Amino acid sequence: MDSMGRSSVRLLVAVGLLLLRFNWCLAVDGGGVAEVGGAFPMVVSTWPFREAVRAAWEVVSASDGGGSAVDAVVAGCSACEVLRCDGTVGPGGSPDENGETTLDALIMNGATMEIGAVAAMRYVKDGIKAAKLVMDHSLHTLLVGEKATDFAISMGLPGPINLSSPESLEKWANWRQNHCQPNFWKNVAPAGSCGPYRPINLAQALDSVKHEVEGSQGGVCQDWFQSDNLLEPINSHLKFIDRHNHDTISMAVIDKMGHIAVGTSTNGATFKIPGRVGDGPIPGSSSYGDDEVGACGASGDGDIMMRFLPCYQVVESMRRGMEPQDAARDAISRIARKYPDFVGAVFAVNRKGVHAGACHGWTFQYSVMNSSMHDVEVITVYP
Ligand SMILES: *[C@@H]1O[C@H](CO)[C@@H](O)[C@H](O)[C@H]1NC(C)=O
Ligand SMILES: *[C@@H]1O[C@H](CO)[C@@H](O)[C@H](O)[C@H]1NC(C)=O
């Protein structure tokens, strides 16, 4: 090998190591980076939710001119709600601490920047349709809880309906039997059992322990503070975040007119504290889209991701000239710098139809459909 060849190999190895170092994930599609340009219409969705993508595609590609991007997003997310994709979308999944299933959903029209969303909605099974009713028939953006239920039912959606299923109730019963572990509480007592909990002042608790330890055997202190002993109960929930706990359908559609819409539907995190609202109904977090630029969808640990508005970040980065792949990686790495243990992913698609994904802490998949594909393509993004 000549020296030129050797140095390019060295460069490639260095770049590879760098990517590994940052736990970045490259969207690989048959060995290359999946950045493909294309014409409209187009549907992109988190995860291999093929039926949802087909349902959206049917609407947006119809031969009589095709439906709007907004209608396609509603059709796609509704399909997932009916199918209960992965048990994490629609009714019958992700029981909260009381065993109840509630829904979060959002829809956004990228032509007008109108948004409708519902959060912690009880007794109505049609999350994305409720979100669209908020967008179409109110001047508000987000309705929550039982008030969202009342609104949705008054606008014609079926309800009240019990959203539990035999599976969700069984899951909940097993969790209760396991002393309500793991859960989403921190700095509370009693640890390791079901509530009711009371807050403990961490600083005080540390202080009293510190005094005890110092009083007896000075050197032990440091070890004890770094031991799992202390950290375990506080961060216990980190251990049970996986695809089937923090899963969401986020979908982006570009219609034949080039208009963009995005939407999200989820039943939230399993064993969440009642009242918890995740990233799903938060504009710019789970999804975001603007006709002028493109769109983004996200999935993962919503409690952390919503602190960074990753999809707003992706779209604004693309507006400022970044390619979808760079914008997606940048949004993920901003979160990873502060929360190295978070799991999450985004897809990015620009208005030309170039798409890419990035993820952290898990293997991510997203689905794409356009007019030159015979069926939905699933793209894997490796950690
Ligand atoms: C659809 O996507 C494929 C692969 O991702 C790409 O090669 C093709 O150009 C796209 N077609 C259109 C019409 O956008
Ligand atoms: C739904 O039905 C189950 C099973 O009958 C019941 O235990 C539960 O309390 C109901 N949930 C709500 C929120 O009414």
UniProtKB/TrEMBL annotation:
Keyword match Iron-sulfur: no
GO cellular component assignments: cytoplasm
Regions annotated as coiled coil: none
Enzymatic class: hydrolase
Reaction(s) catalysed by this chain's protein: Cleavage of a beta-linked Asp residue from the N-terminus of a polypeptide
Pfam families: Asparaginase_2 (PF01112)
GO MF term (any one): N4-(beta-N-acetylglucosaminyl)-L-asparaginase activity
Keywords: Autocatalytic cleavage, Hydrolase, Protease, Signal
InterPro entries reported in the protein's UniProt record: Ntn_hydrolases_N, Peptidase_T2
Signal peptide: 1-27
E.C. number(s) listed in UniProt: 3.4.19.5
Keyword Hydrolase: yes
Record: active site: T248
Site description Cleavage, residues in chain: D247, T248
GO biological process: proteolysis
The family this protein is said to belong to: Belongs to the Ntn-hydrolase family.
Assembly notes: Heterotetramer of two alpha and two beta chains arranged as a dimer of alpha/beta heterodimers.
Name assigned to this protein: beta-aspartyl-peptidase
Gene source species: Setaria italica (Foxtail millet)
Lineage: Eukaryota, Viridiplantae, Streptophyta, Embryophyta, Tracheophyta
Gene name of this polypeptide: LOC101761688
